[in-house]
Amino acid sequence: MKKLLLLLLFSIAMTAQKKEAVYKKLAALTCECATNKGTEKLTETDLGLCIFESLGMLDEKDRKAIGYNPDKKSTSLERIAENVGVEMALLCPKVFSNILDEAADEYAAEDEVVEVIASSHKGSFESMTSAEFNTITITDESNTKREFIWLFSFVGDTLFIKDKIVKGDKIEVFYTEQQFFDPKTKTYKIYNEITEVKLL
After folding, report:
1. CB within 8 A of 135, min separation 6: which ones?
2. Strand partners, 181
3. Which end of the chain has fewer beta carbons closer than 10 Å to its terminal beta carbon, N or C?
4. Is 87 helix (H, G, I), strand (E, B) or coil?
């Protein structure tokens, strides 16, 4: 029984060593392919093509050792790519870091937030009306009335919630212009959406 167990463990160890050797060989071929691309930055597609090309250079026995199934390319490649990536990090760190840098750049671009610059208008608080949403009206020095809509929470909204602003108070309203569809006129209208209010 002990001999059988030892034989089984030895067989598992040999299979694992064979796999590791094949992954190292595949990583070396992939590194060579990636280097020959001659580009400073490599896309994940480039890397995938290099791995696929390198797999073609392996013999049937090696491909079988790492469990590559030509009939299930996408599933096989995903698992193989992970192991090849680990070996590539050791064999050709420069190539590997270029791929990582590009991935980081892509994520940074996805996470980039477009900054919306708010305009501001000063005047005397006139009124607040409620319909579909709250509308705040102020009158400026030239006696022109301007309307601003309250859609979301903003800095200074508690001044209105707690009735700390009354008619005639001088305020500064920060806002961004937004286009919304008006079902009555069946057109898009520009509204001034409040982003902040300051009591002057």
Report:
1. 128, 129, 147, 148, 149, 150
2. 188
3. N
4. helix
CA atoms within 13 A on the CB side of 156: 14
- Taking the C-alpha atoms of residue 16 and residue 31, their distance in angstroms, rounded to an integer, is 22
Q: Would you write out the chain's pLDDT as a tens digit for each of its 200 residues?
A: 555 544 444 444 455 577 788 888 888 888 888 888 765 667 777 878 888 888 888 888 888 888 777 666 666 677 788 888 888 878 888 776 766 555 454 554 444 444 556 789 999 999 999 877 899 999 998 999 999 999 889 999 999 999 999 999 999 999 999 888 877 888 888 899 999 999 99
Q: Let me know how long the chain is.
A: 200
φ and ψ of 175, to 5 deg: -150, 165
Cα distances (angstroms) measured from residue 137 to each of 22, 91, 155, 157: 74, 67, 18, 15
Gyration radius of the chain over CA positions: 33
Question: What's at 1, amino acid-wise?
Answer: M
